[in-house]
Specification:
alpha+beta, Ribosomal Protein S5, domain 2, Alpha-Beta Plaits, 2 domains, five-stranded antiparallel sheet, four-stranded antiparallel sheet, 10 helices, 44% helix, globular
């Protein structure tokens, strides 16, 4: 096997957290600040040794009978014995694609009949998503496969439904005053417990109704406005979406962020939403005036994702 080590970037789900489970739209973009690549090392430090050990365990999963494509597991094992590890700056449990990037890198290096990174046919993107769903399920118990698909393709993806997704052109970033940003909660989140809370809430008729009649409506309107670069309906619907999340997804909002969330809604200087499954990790924010907002939120280490 070649020892080339292409980079795989993290991802940000701008819109669609939890909603895509119930067939709302989603919009995800690569996050190039965080990245990972395979490397070889003759003598490991503790972090590298841990990565190598985890990859050996994952190799056993790839050897399973249910693998959706043909992997060169012999080459994978040989590389691991020769010092392979995944060198990544993507924080784990922060909703920015740590397992997605790893899965994409494994598929790219060891799948023997892989689909190209820039598939033109929607059926190929759908096939990638199905393969990655199986591959990433090792980490989360259940995976949509969307995160690794984004990390593999390195392009913004518009998710119209569970079975319909494709790359999408976004307005070019500008040096404007507006921004999408992340706030660091300082603690990782765990996807599976948060999803279990959500699935439990779905048993309540009121929660299901809110999701169907309000959450999906505002979420999809935000995506349409963002893709079209229309900030007026974007912020109008963001406020409604942020308020809904505060009222109905309270366990998913990281500790210490509830008051900050309310302050944004009251002042309208910024609006916060979940980044991934929540519970920890990052919180996402949108603002019309980033310079002012970054000063207001300086204690939370705001990090720009996209300028407009």
């Amino acid at each position: 096997m070649s020892r080339s080590n292409p980079l795989f970037y993290g991802k940000i789900l701008l819109f669609g957290e939890y909603g895509i489970i119930k067939d709302s739209m989603g919009l995800s973009i690569p996050h190039t600040y965080y990245k990972g690549a395979f490397q070889f090392e003759e003598s490991f430090n503790a972090t590298q040794a841990k990565s190598n050990e985890h990859l050996f365990k994952y190799l056993e999963y790839l050897k399973g009978e249910n693998a959706p494509c043909s992997f060169n597991t012999a080459a994978f094992e040989d590389d691991l014995n020769n010092g392979l590890y995944f060198d990544s700056s993507i924080p784990q449990g922060f909703g920015v694609g740590s397992s997605g990037a790893l899965v994409a890198a494994i598929y790219d290096r060891y799948c023997e009949d892989k689909i190209a990174k820039n598939p033109e046919k929607s059926s190929d993107i759908k096939a990638l998503k199905a393969i990655f769903s199986w591959m990433e399920s090792y980490f989360h118990g259940k995976s949509s496969g969307i995160d690794p698909t984004i990390c593999y393709m390195g392009l913004p993806l518009l998710i119209k439904s569970k079975d319909e997704l494709g790359s999408v052109a976004l307005p070019a970033e500008t040096s404007g005053e507006g921004a999408v940003f992340l706030l660091n909660s300082g603690m990782p989140g765990e996807t599976q417990p948060m999803v279990e809370i959500f699935m439990d809430k779905l048993k309540e008729e009121g929660f299901r109704s809110m999701l169907k009649n309000q959450f999906v409506k505002y979420n999809d309107a935000c995506i349409k406005a963002f893709v079209e670069g229309d900030t007026k309906p974007l912020f109008s619907n963001l406020k409604k979406l942020s308020k809904l999340v505060l009222e109905n997804f309270e366990p998913m909002i990281p500790q210490g962020f509830h008051d900050l969330w309310k302050e944004g809604l009251e002042s309208e200087e910024y609006f916060l939403k979940l980044c991934g499954s929540g519970g920890g990790g990052f919180v996402m924010g949108f603002t019309r005036d980033y310079e002012k907002t970054s000063e207001l939120l300086k204690d939370y280490q705001p990090e720009v994702v996209y300028r407009f």
